[in-house]
């Protein structure tokens, strides 16, 4: 999938949100120099890839202009690549994807699964780069109005495969496609847990699977004290637990804000798998 990265264990993707309004770390890394330093630290802490995004996709988020997204992410991607960090770009826009790849990004992480911009698949095909197609129904401002399913797991898998067909028709190589069931996107907290309980339904589709559970609201709800959600930066232990479970379920990569514990967890899972082989 990506030369030079581990193939005997679940990969770890670190997150750099160059945004003022992301749910977990909005505003922390908005300055390019600070974001680059943070990305380098993520790599040193065990992230195999660092995912750079300039547009928040938290529930209720409003879209920004393409020019602003480019202004935020390009200097960070260029800076991280110059430091030897392997970079992916978190974007729903073909123009941003194209410019990010030219700046050295190696993977496209499209939370819309190619639905938000009809040109995205063509960019991935032309670059022959891996692309993550996440399950997505609508933009963040309204996505939680779209949580009705006839059969949750079958519907998510079916909608993902629709986007696989679109990608293949556009010329994306089958071996370049990665799927993400989209925890938190058009899903309630209970639905997120159901997805986690049925990861095999996605790993059995025949594509690598990425999972992004890090610090999300459903973990804050699980760990709440009364009506007070567990703060986002105090959800790391729960995130690591999910990373270990995901790795054991055969997930290709987990996307996390703090990679240290997750990097250890996926190595433990891989070592145990050697004994069970």
> Under the CATH scheme, which class?
Alpha Beta
Number of helical stretches of at least 4 residues = 10
Structural class: alpha/beta
Low-confidence stretches: none
Task: Give average pLDDT, whole number.
Answer: 95
The count of β-strands is: 8
- The H-level CATH homologous superfamily, spelled out, is Dihydropteroate synthase-like
Task: Give the DSSP E fraction (strand runs of 2 or more residues).
Answer: 5-15%
Compute the number of structural domains.
1
Describe the protein in words:
It is built from 10 helices and 8 strands. Strand 5 (131-134), helix 5 (152-169) and strand 6 form a beta-alpha-beta unit. The chain is globular. The protein has one domain: Dihydropteroate synthase-like (TIM Barrel, Alpha-Beta Barrel), CATH 3.20.20. The protein has 277 residues and is an alpha/beta fold.
What would you say about this model in short?
By secondary structure, the chain is α/β, with parallel strands linked by helices. The chain has 10 helices and 8 strands.
Annotation keywords:
about 280 residues; alpha/beta; TIM Barrel; eight-stranded parallel sheet; 10 helices; 8 strands; about 40% helix; globular
Provide the fold topology.
Elements: E1 11-17, H1 32-44, E2 49-53, H2 66-82, E3 87-90, H3 94-102, E4 107-110, H4 120-127, E5 131-134, H5 152-169, E6 177-180, H6 189-197, H7 200-203, E7 210-211, H8 217-222, H9 236-248, E8 253-256, H10 259-276
Parallel strand pairs: 1-2, 1-8, 2-3, 3-4, 4-5, 5-6, 7-8
Helix pairs in contact: 1-2, 2-3, 3-4, 9-10
């Amino acid at each position: 999938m990506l030369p030079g990265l581990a193939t005997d264990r679940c990969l770890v993707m670190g997150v750099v949100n160059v945004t003022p309004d992301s749910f977990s770390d909005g505003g922390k890394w908005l300055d390019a120099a600070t974001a680059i330093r943070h990305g380098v630290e993520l790599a040193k802490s065990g992230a195999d890839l660092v995912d750079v995004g300039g547009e928040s996709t938290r529930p209720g988020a409003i879209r920004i202009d393409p020019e602003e997204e480019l202004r935020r992410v390009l200097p960070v991607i260029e800076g991280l690549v110059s430091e030897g960090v392997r970079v992916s770009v978190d974007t729903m826009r073909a123009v941003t994807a194209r410019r990010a790849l030219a700046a050295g990004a190696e993977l496209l992480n499209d939370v819309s699964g190619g639905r938000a911009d009809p040109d995205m698949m063509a960019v991935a095909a032309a670059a022959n780069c891996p692309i993550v197609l996440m399950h997505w129904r609508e933009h963040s401002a309204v996505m939680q109005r779209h949580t009705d399913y006839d059969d949750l797991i079958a519907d998510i898998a079916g909608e993902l495969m629709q986007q696989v067909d679109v990608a293949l028709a556009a010329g994306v190589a089958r071996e370049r496609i990665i799927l993400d069931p989209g925890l938190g996107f058009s899903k309630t907290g209970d639905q997120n847990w159901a997805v986690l309980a049925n990861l095999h339904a996605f790993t059995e589709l025949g594509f690598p699977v990425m999972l992004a559970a890090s610090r999300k609201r459903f973990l804050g709800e699980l760990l709440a004290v009364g009506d007070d959600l567990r703060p986002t930066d105090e959800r790391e232990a729960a995130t690591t637990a999910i990373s270990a479970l995901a790795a054991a379920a055969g997930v290709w990569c987990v996307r996390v804000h703090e990679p240290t514990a997750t990097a250890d967890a996926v190595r433990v899972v891989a070592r145990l798998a050697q004994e069970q082989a």
